[in-house]
Design goal:
heterodimer, A: alpha+beta, Alpha-Beta Plaits, two-stranded antiparallel ribbon, globular, B: alpha/beta, FAD/NAD(P)-binding domain, D-Amino Acid Oxidase, Chain A, domain 2, seven-stranded mixed beta sheet
Amino acid sequence: MMRIEEKLFQNRYRVDSGYAHIEISDADICATQCHDKPCTFCCPAGCYVEDPGGRVTLITDGCLECGTCRVICTEYRNVSWEYPRGGYGILFKFG
Amino acid sequence: MTEHFDAIVVGAGPAGNTAAYTLAKAGLKVLQIERGEYSGSKNVQGAILYSDALERIIPDFREDAPLERHIIEQRMWVLDEESYVGGTYRSADFSKTPYNRYTIIRSQFDRWFSQKVRDAGALVVCETTVLDLHRDGHRVVGVRTDRENGSVYADVVILADGVNSLLARKAGFHEEIKPRDVALAVKEIHFLPESTIEERFNVTGTEGVVIEMAGKITKGMVGTGFLYTNRESVTIGIGCLLSDFKKGGVAPYVLLEQMKAHPAIRPLLSGSEMKEYTAHLIPEGGYNAIPALYGDGWLMVGDAGMFVNAVHREGSNLAMTTGQIAAQTVIELKAQGKPMTARNLSVYRRRLEGSFVMKDMKKYKDIPDIMDKNRQFFVAYPQLVSSAAHTMLTVDGTDKKSKERAVFKSFTAARSRLGLLADVFKLWRAFE
């Protein structure tokens, strides 16, 4: 089975170093209040990872800009979501 | 950018391109803003292009549009763990010109469309993200972009910014999307030699095949899979309601891997080279989820307005048609010297109601709810049909009458006689 990292490796990105277009607003909410953490298994690029301490880390480099994380965080609205700056992010070769 | 435009179009998918093209053709001063490196670089679709909608905009599109294969065969598969039961419709009639539908590769197609928009006279600015709408009281008067001094103004702003439509949400025109109103689809493109595709799918020249799939591949979630043939590649994908993904169980990319490993699908991809993995939300909430589509100084088109007919897998054609009707509305108001008020722009919604767009959306308005509440269509029935076929097609010394009884019993055991009747009734009501 092909791992998500191998899939994303095929894609073309222009990463906006030092600027993340998506941020977790309050990391404590993920750690202490959100039990299901749907972002960690719904994000199609696997950008959200839960560490052993129950904290969620987000690395947006592989983001496919679909909006899933923004839409599923219905209980806490804890995802601050913007599009990348113009020209940055995923650049689909085929789309 | 302090110039004033007749119209600003945000986004360069099929809806935005159609709107910008139609407005520019009519001589209006149009600015189109796209956040990608070029028009198409942020856009994802299966992708099937329905000729009719585009013909009404660019009648001679076939002369230079980058088209992959014209579809002559449609297969519908209902998959169990190791099997599928299917139906196929193939006709040589679909190989008579003008062709009815094509597979396309969106980054190429959208770039072509964008050139038409420029040729028509619109100013197309890429690599620019629109951050907010400028408002004067209730009225939208322009947009703020991420460029330096990046505010720009117009009589009307057409929001073609796709399913997420952040602008309408930030402005308070719309609530946040509900997870049950969108499907999350993931897709890969696999390259194969042209000759291999022809042999494997029993086609020649630019003929192509579409396979739509349902059943066990979605693990009980409401959703479907697909495989489309391009000239030198196939796209394979699967999409399910986001509210179902949220319940947990399987990550989208794992679901796609498992689908690719199905014994009926794996051979179709054998020896291919995967070159891109994409994901996209598809607005599938239907008619009841359509948000406000116009207001003072703004109109909304395409995915942003939930214009997808999930039953018939139509979206890009609805995007084009809504883009065209929105543009025509603006052109007429402009010609009459009328302001772009909500009252005047309401003509857009009325025209949509009179077109196939809203008629189709209305016809299937109950489907999302029925599918959501009746999981048997995605779980029990695929299994029942598959095992019935297996029973009837296995020669093992059992007489056929007994086999028929066993099949009928398996159906009534799973759904009861009344349940079977109720299911037929539900489907009939949903599709009537």
